[in-house]
Amino acid sequence: MSTVHPIILSGGSGTRLWPLSRRLYPKQFIDFSGTTLFGQTIARASALAGSAPPIVICNDEQRFLAAAILQRHGLCSDDQKSAGAMILLEPEGRNTAPAVALGAMAAMARSEEKDPLLLVLSSDHIITPQDKFAEAVCLATTGAEAGKLVVFGVLPTRPETGFGYIRQGREIFPDIYAVERFVEKPDAATAAHLLQQDGVTWNSGIFLFRASVFLEELACYAPEVEKACRTIWESRGSDLDFTRFSREAFEACPSISVDYAVMERTDKACVTPLKAEWSDMGSWKAFYDSADKDYDGNAVSGDVLHLDSRNCYLHSSHRLVAALGVENLCVVETADAVLVLPRERAQDVKLLLEELKKSERSEADAHVRVYRPWGSYENIALGDRFQVKRIIVNPGGVLSLQMHHHRAEHWVVVRGTAKIQMEERSLVLKEDESTYIPLGMRHRLENPGRIPLEIIEIQTGSYLGEDDIIRFEDTYGRAN
């Protein structure tokens, strides 16, 4: 069997899972009971016999979230031509066809094989058990090695309007069928009708094919996309563990999905059943469907009290959620927002998100806790000319050498050890010690210890926005 090169698509924002999923911290990176969907995908791909390290495509803002998880799996390396994973950064989202094309070019550039076999996976799916997934990949290899573009079809269990469907045609290899046609996300009546027919599956968005075959079909059916991706690939450069591309070249590329660009046009498309439990975890209804439920049909996560309530999904992240006498609802609480909607309207969360964006509400993009490559910070209090933050710096983490035009900062060490540079002077602060950084002073914070450093930062000044930062040096490539 040929080596499989996993291509992990991780550019999605998970808008239907707001308020838990945000643009800067989407669902694939959220920790659910000690694991993330991205981490599960990496583990799933790595467990395949003979698989190569993955090639991850994600956006620039989430690069350190992806790298941290890859490092925990022992897959992130300083030399991307070695045994480590590759991380390709999209400066601008252009849907899945350009992402897969760049993944194919990356695999061909690093592989000793002339024409590597690509397994395209979304970073936010749940697939169990692993052996059923591995069997499906092994089976699909027959078609892919014969020059086919294989899509994995999931056997439908309910009328679902949030998925695309595939109608299979004649069998061309054992349990691999020609695609008769793709059906876009249907209305409820059409979905119910499709469910009654034989040879119909959900489109999982998982693919297996030769790199050259996909690129040839892309050049045939979407030549402007293939040409743009060649230009993008030639613009590449390296930055730490990441491969970057020209923003100008990326923005010139059409935005289009793999299905629209290739799969719905080519005569090489075929489908094989994925005989496993699968969910794209794309809505709160999907979370409800996959969760354990009590006697009254309620699925509960976190600190929840419910009485005389039925068939609800109740999620608490930070405080008590109490429900009385309600039915068929999704209630999701985070530190700065609460979502309440009928369970059957879970697909419509994006309508709320659109309104938040129109109002330029920060809740559309970020949580109260914001993650950075060195750790995280969260706002505790905000008032006229002052702001209080709780800052966590990971062991070995170093903030940029920076200054602010409009604010001064007071730092109090709550836990750990802080190494602080202020202009040419440096000092070390222990727990219960503090310092003051005047407006306009160059400064830098570092955690030289073995435990997380926690400080309380009190900002004072005329403007307290995050864009009042001038970076002079930065370990993570963010200097001005």
Task: Summarize this structure briefly.
With 480 residues, this protein is an alpha/beta fold. It has eleven helices and 30 strands.
List keywords for this structure.
single chain, alpha/beta, 6-stranded antiparallel β-sheet, 5-stranded mixed barrel, 11 helices, globular
Structural class: alpha/beta
Assembly type of the shown chains?
single chain
Classify the beta-strand content into a percent band.
Answer: 25-35%
- Count every beta strand, where a strand is a DSSP E run of 2 or more residues: 30
What is the helix fraction of residues, given as a range? 10-25%
Q: Please give the count of helices.
A: 11
Note the gap between the termini: 48 Å
Overall 3D form: globular
Mean pLDDT: 92
Report the radius of gyration as a whole number of Å: 24 Å
The parts where pLDDT drops under 50 for at least 5 residues are: 78-82
How would a crystallographer describe the biggest sheet? 6 strands, antiparallel
Neighbour order of strands in the largest sheet = 20-21-22-29-24-27
Topology summary:
Layout: E1 4-10, H1 37-46, E2 55-59, H2 63-72, E3 86-90, H3 96-110, E4 117-122, E5 126-128, H4 130-145, E6 149-154, E7 165-173, E8 176-183, H5 188-195, E9 200-210, H6 211-221, H7 223-234, E10 237-239, E11 242-244, H8 247-251, H9 258-263, E12 269-274, E13 277-279, H10 284-290, E14 299-301, E15 304-307, E16 313-316, E17 321-324, E18 329-333, E19 338-342, H11 349-358, E20 369-372, E21 375-383, E22 386-393, E23 401-403, E24 407-415, E25 418-422, E26 425-429, E27 434-437, E28 443-446, E29 453-461, E30 470-473
Parallel strand pairs: 1-2, 1-4, 2-3, 3-11, 6-12, 14-16, 15-17, 16-18
Antiparallel strand pairs: 4-9, 5-13, 6-9, 7-8, 7-9, 8-12, 10-11, 18-19, 20-21, 21-22, 22-29, 23-30, 24-27, 24-29, 25-26, 25-28
